[in-house]
């Protein structure tokens, strides 16, 4: 299902995620981080990825919480001592700092989940190809081999069991030997076939002249507008960050948070940056949802497609 | 133009010489000219673009991971601008019906689709000359037919010159303008397909007959003076064959009435009795009678009733929420029979063999082996079996695993080597021998386990006619020693000739089974070419031998 933000040009998505990663690293401020987490989570839910997110959540939470717990145990900086744990002072600042680290980690985790869903390898390779066509070709060919070898190894394992080569049985030594045999079969087979692949490449004119790149993506007007929007709304928070805004000082003593007009402007611009894809996705939802109510002459349009989309919302 | 000849006859070498980039290393004398210019003088782009080549193995030619990537690959190599690539891709995708597949990963495609993709990818460079090296040998018959039809269209509509080497000539030969027969590196014959048929008719014992389409072979078998028959009367396709048979039928009927009016009473009498008593004719097709269409399997003792392997309501799927590949399938196998399992692509034939061999565990139902019965399995790809550097080592290790003591192992190995004609290859690397030999080696390895049941997955794929016959003889020999064989195949002709029982796998279950004669004669499309040709006259005849046996009787009857 490719719609909304996912259907945008890869460069748009790339700029978006690069920006988010930059902000997550630079803007050490709970408000900004929380906004980023909320925005990305909501985007994923809108894209119907809520379940996948939920499945990974225990792991991410465990990682993040353990950082939050470990920080005050190892760092004793800060002015306010809360209590002593095994003769170690636990300071309020360290606890807060740990919580902030937790937020940063969570942001990065969610960021990558969303990135993986939106920027598929195909898109990434497309962007990469413009910079380094030969490397991209090589990478693509190599990447094809990973699942291919997995499938082949499965076949080989199955068949070699007939002749008593089984990496799942016996002593560790015989297992290792059998495992190596299986790999050897795989390698011999694949190298043999690679010769034919090389022939096929040569036969189709590989290396005759400089390669051009065929792209399936087109940069349309909306993509350009989005790129402009991202650039503008991304530069403003960056500008303010350079002036020293948007970073919460915790050590040695937490500074009080205060919101001036500059902070407000910075936050507003940041929100525009983070939430634009959400708006796009929401618009898509709304388009399809409203079409259920509007009367289409064809009955088929109303049926499955729209219901499927809306059922994800609930 | 069709190139034909036995494996190792030099077809591939010739084709590779025509494609400059792939010319084999070695001593070359003589000259190859393309459009009046020596091939070696062509500019690189012309040589790559105007001469396209498709190889035997659909998988090995693929470079990229998705369909559009693969299609774009050759155009990217030539450095075409994006706009040109886009329009050419659109054109070719439309022509080949690849649009729905454009974004699919290639490994999800079937063999036939992959081979079409390979062809399309070559055609994007708009070649004037297409070289194909046994492109359909790895495909099932339906996909092969589709592929050849596409080639025919390209040839007719775009006037692309096509040079194809093939073993499966049923479809290709009628379409060819010129036939070349290569044997031992020499050009043995060159001419039109009908010329070729006539030539083969002049030498009754020639092995070349095996390369002819069935219609022509039947023609040669029934027409003693075929060598001098007029060119137009030689049938190449089922339709032509049918027309010819009916004309023959008319002549025979005419002769018969002549004879009757001539006053030969006894002739009239015998034909009457034969025609009058329907059983008289049917008796010839009774599987038990000597005229049974079971063909060459006749010499093998009839299967006994000893049950070797039984599947009871086996249900299998690969993943938890995948589709059920086998659904409540029941099947039994008796000693000494050759069971051919047929079915479309993805019907679960290979899966069934895996389950029968115990490589996969069914989720429901049971597979029961008779007491002390072992089974051996030969997968479609023999390369999966090899893990040593020489043929000898492979066999030795296998014998060791089978638990044969030293002396007996050696005896057994040398016996198998003799049967499979592998003696000269003992020290070669298993990957260096030909496809057919690899298969034989794998089979020999399986045989070392001395199984009572042999499960074969598509054993006739990519074999030339001679090799097929040798395989059949081998299987017959095994059967006479009480080994049961199950083979999964697309090869209808092979199953009809040699199987003792045929079964159809469809929608996860066995939908019909029976002796070949009944099994195939009840099918309309899924039957042998001979049967399709003569079914109006001899509904149960499946092979040329059947027709030859029953034809005189039939001719005198009508």
TrEMBL record, chain A:
Bilayer topology annotation: Multi-pass membrane protein
Subcellular localization(s) per the UniProt record: Membrane
InterPro entries assigned: ABC/ECF_trnsptr_transmembrane
Keywords of this entry: Membrane, Transmembrane, Transmembrane helix
Entry-linked Pfam families: CbiQ (PF02361)
Residue stretches spanning the membrane: 57-74, 95-118, 225-244, 264-282
PANTHER family the UniProt entry points to: PROTEIN ABCI12, CHLOROPLASTIC
Protein name per UniProt: Energy-coupling factor transporter transmembrane protein EcfT
Organism for this UniProt entry: Paenibacillus helianthi
């Amino acid at each position: 299902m490719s719609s909304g933000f996912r259907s945008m040009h890869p460069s748009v998505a790339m700029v978006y995620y690069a920006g988010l990663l930059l902000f997550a690293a630079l803007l050490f401020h709970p408000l900004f981080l929380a906004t980023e987490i909320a925005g990305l989570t909501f985007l994923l839910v809108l894209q119907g990825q809520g379940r996948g997110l939920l499945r990974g959540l225990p792991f991410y939470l465990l990682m993040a919480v353990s950082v939050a717990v470990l920080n005050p145990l190892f760092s004793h900086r800060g002015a306010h001592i809360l209590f002593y744990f095994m003769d170690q002072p636990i300071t309020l600042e360290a606890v807060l700092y740990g919580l902030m680290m937790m937020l940063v980690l969570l942001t990065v985790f969610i960021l990558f989940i969303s990135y993986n869903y939106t920027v598929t390898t195909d898109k990434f390779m497309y962007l990469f190809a413009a910079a380094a066509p030969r490397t991209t070709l090589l990478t693509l060919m190599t990447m094809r081999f990973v699942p291919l070898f997995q499938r082949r190894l499965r076949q080989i394992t199955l068949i070699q069991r007939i002749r008593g080569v089984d990496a799942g049985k016996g002593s560790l030594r015989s297992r290792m030997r059998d495992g190596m045999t299986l790999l050897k079969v795989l390698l011999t087979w694949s190298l043999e076939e690679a010769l034919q692949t090389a022939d096929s490449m040569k036969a189709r004119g590989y290396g005759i002249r400089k390669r051009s790149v065929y792209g399936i993506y087109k940069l349309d007007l909306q993509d350009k507008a989005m790129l402009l929007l991202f650039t503008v709304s991304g530069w403003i928070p960056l500008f303010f960050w350079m002036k020293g805004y948007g970073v919460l000082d915790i050590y040695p003593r937490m500074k009080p948070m205060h919101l001036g007009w500059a902070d407000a402007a910075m936050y507003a611009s940041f929100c525009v940056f983070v939430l634009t894809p959400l708006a796009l996705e929401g618009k898509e939802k709304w388009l399809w949802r409203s079409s259920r109510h509007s009367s289409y002459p064809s009955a088929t349009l109303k049926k499955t497609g729209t219901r499927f989309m809306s059922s994800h919302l609930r | 133009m069709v190139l034909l000849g036995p494996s190792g006859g030099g077809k591939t070498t010739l084709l590779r010489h025509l494609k400059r980039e792939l010319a084999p290393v070695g001593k070359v004398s003589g000259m190859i000219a393309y459009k009046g210019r020596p091939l070696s003088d062509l500019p690189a782009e012309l040589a790559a673009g105007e001469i396209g080549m498709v190889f035997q193995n659909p998988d090995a030619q693929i470079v990229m991971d998705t369909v559009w990537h693969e299609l774009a690959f050759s155009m990217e190599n030539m450095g075409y601008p994006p706009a040109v690539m886009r329009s050419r891709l659109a054109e070719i995708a439309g022509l080949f019906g690849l649009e729905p597949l454009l974004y699919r990963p290639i490994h999800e495609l079937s063999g036939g689709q992959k081979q079409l993709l390979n062809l399309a990818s070559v055609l994007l460079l708009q070649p004037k000359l297409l070289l194909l090296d046994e492109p359909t040998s790895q495909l099932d018959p339906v996909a092969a037919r589709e592929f050849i039809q596409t080639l025919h269209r390209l040839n007719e509509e775009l006037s692309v010159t096509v040079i194809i080497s093939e073993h499966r000539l049923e479809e290709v030969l009628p379409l060819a303008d010129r036939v070349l027969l290569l044997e031992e590196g020499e050009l043995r014959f060159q001419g039109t397909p009908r010329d070729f048929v006539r030539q083969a008719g002049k030498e009754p014992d020639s092995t070349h007959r095996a390369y002819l389409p069935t219609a022509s072979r039947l023609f040669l078998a029934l027409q003693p003076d075929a060598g001098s028959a007029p060119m137009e009367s030689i049938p190449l396709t089922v339709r032509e064959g049918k027309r010819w048979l009916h004309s023959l039928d008319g002549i025979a009927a005419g002769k018969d009435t002549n004879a009757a009016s001539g006053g030969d009473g006894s002739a009239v009498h015998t034909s009457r009795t034969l025609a009058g008593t329907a059983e008289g004719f049917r008796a010839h097709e009774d599987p038990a009678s000597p005229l049974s269409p079971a063909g060459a399997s006749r010499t093998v003792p009839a299967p006994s009733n000893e049950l070797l392997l039984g599947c009871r309501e086996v249900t299998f799927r690969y993943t938890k929420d995948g589709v059920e590949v086998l659904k409540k399938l029941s099947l039994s196998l008796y000693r000494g029979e050759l069971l051919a399992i047929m079915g479309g692509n993805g019907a679960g034939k290979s899966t069934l063999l895996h389950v029968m061999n115990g490589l996969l565990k069914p989720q429901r139902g049971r597979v029961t082996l008779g007491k002390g019965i072992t089974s051996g399995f030969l997968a479609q790809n023999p390369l999966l079996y090899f893990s040593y550097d020489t043929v000898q080592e492979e066999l030795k290790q296998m014998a060791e695993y089978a638990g044969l003591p030293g002396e007996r192992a050696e005896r057994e190995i040398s016996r198998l080597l003799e049967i499979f004609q592998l003696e000269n290859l003992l020290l070669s690397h298993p990957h260096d021998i030909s496809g057919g030999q690899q298969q034989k080696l794998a089979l020999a390895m399986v045989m070392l386990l001395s199984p009572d049941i042999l499960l074969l997955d598509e054993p006739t794929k990519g074999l030339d006619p001679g090799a097929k016959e040798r395989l059949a003889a081998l299987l017959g020999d095994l059967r006479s020693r009480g080994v049961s064989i199950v083979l999964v195949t697309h090869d209808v002709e092979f199953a009809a000739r040699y199987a003792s029982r045929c079964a159809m796998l469809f929608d996860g279950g066995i939908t019909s089974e029976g002796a070949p004669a009944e099994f195939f004669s009840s099918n309309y499309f899924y039957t042998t070419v001979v049967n399709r040709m003569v079914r109006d006259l001899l509904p149960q005849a499946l092979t040329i031998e059947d027709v030859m046996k029953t034809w005189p009787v039939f001719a005198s009857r009508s």
